[in-house]
Amino acid sequence: MNRREFLRYATAGALAAAGAALLPGCTAPAPSSRPALPPLRDRKLIIVLFGGGTRSSESIDDPKHRWVPHLWADLVPHGTLFTNMRVEGKIVHPNSAGSIVTGHWEWGDLDWSQPVAHPTVFEIARRQNGADAWAFVYASILANIGHSRADGFGQPFAANIVEPPTIPRSTAERMDRLMQHAATAPEGLGDAARRAAELARTTSRINLAGLRTEAARAFVQRHYERWKSGGGTTSHDAFLAELAIAAMTRFAPAVSAVCFGEIDCAHYGSWSRYVEAIERTDALVWRLWRAAQELDGYRGRTVMLVLPDHGRELDRPGGAGFVHHSDFYTGAGVDEGCRRVWMLAIGPGVA
Question: What is the distance, to the nearest Å, from the Cα of residue 331 to the centroid of all Cα atoms in its chain?
């Protein structure tokens, strides 16, 4: 089975049957045990990157599943979990994300300023039946996964790309000084955190260049203005999840991708922040699936695929461990912790 055929099966929600042919030890159930597939024109696909580089040891391989309670208890029992998938290309976020949405290894030259080389699942869906497609990405390095430079595809069939708000470097430096000063007087940490969040909101900006229509730009701008004047979390991943659900309600795209990325805070070397980000991502994935069950346009017709973009290094003497996921220029440090990943498929047609 080639990669294009695999994408076609995924879109049709037939991953369980495909897995039986592709993966040793995965047996396809009797057709009667699968939820019925809706007509092709009514099907929805949501691809979720459990992103920022997540080791299996902190997710599906943790015996207690401490940081993925929703994934393990609420989602896995109702879908098919593929536990031994591998990333064979470069261990870097854009390359993995681009490869997931095309079925081909992308950006071997690491030039992320260019669109991907092969048609994306967004373009395929839009060219086939004019379906709407959106991608919610955690950083500008993923801004070019919504369309390709393949003949017959490209901008006319591109997905709407949504990026989270960003802040100028000067704001980041002010926030850093605030928190460093507060660390010398722990009773002031709460106030410093509130001031830092206020700074992040008031000095933020949002890029609308990846949105294809005036209606899409106005929609994202309104959502951003509400976020900017609000007092809730400043988490980029939470912003993307809530905006994805709002777009599902307003536009009902046939194909969506939500690329989370805050787990990559592991690079700062804090274990507690790393596992907290996994737990938050787990909750946001559960929120997305609940929305797909609550919305009339998605209930009973949505297949959701959840998978890490890649892993992180294993713990070994002299190694970086969870903090890093190899040097993507040289490949130094790449190991099974980086390469071994998993995927959950859930929805109609999936056992």
Answer: 23
For the chain, the straight-line distance linking the first and the last C-alpha, in angstroms and rounded, comes to 20
Q: Which residues pair with 224 in a beta bridge?
A: none
Do 166 and 204 contact (CB within 8 A), yes or no? Answer: yes
Cβ(240)–Cβ(134) under 8 Å? no
Strands 255-259 and 302-307: unpaired
Name which of 265, 259, 289 is nearest 277 in CA terms: 265
Helix, strand, or coil (residue 287): helix
Q: What are the φ and ψ backbone dihedral angles of 40, each rounded to 5 degrees?
A: -55, -40
pLDDT digits (tens, 9 = 90+) for 277-331: 999 999 999 999 999 999 999 999 999 999 999 999 999 998 999 999 998 888 8
Is the whole-model pTM more than 0.85?
Answer: yes
The predicted pLDDT at position 323 comes to 96
Tokens of 18: 């495909």
Residue pointed to by tokens 């959106």: 134
Distance between CA atoms of residues 306 and 300, nearest Å: 18
Q: Which amino acid is at 186?
A: P
Amino acid identity, position 49: L
- Name the DSSP class of 38: P
Q: What distance in Å separates the CA atoms of residue 18 and residue 169, rounded to the nearest whole number?
A: 47
The sheet that has 160-162: what strands, in order across it? 79-86, 340-346, 302-307, 44-49, 255-259, 133-137, 160-162
Q: Which residues, 6+ apart, have CB-to-CB distance to 93 below 8 Å?
A: 51, 52, 53, 139, 141, 142, 261, 264, 309, 310
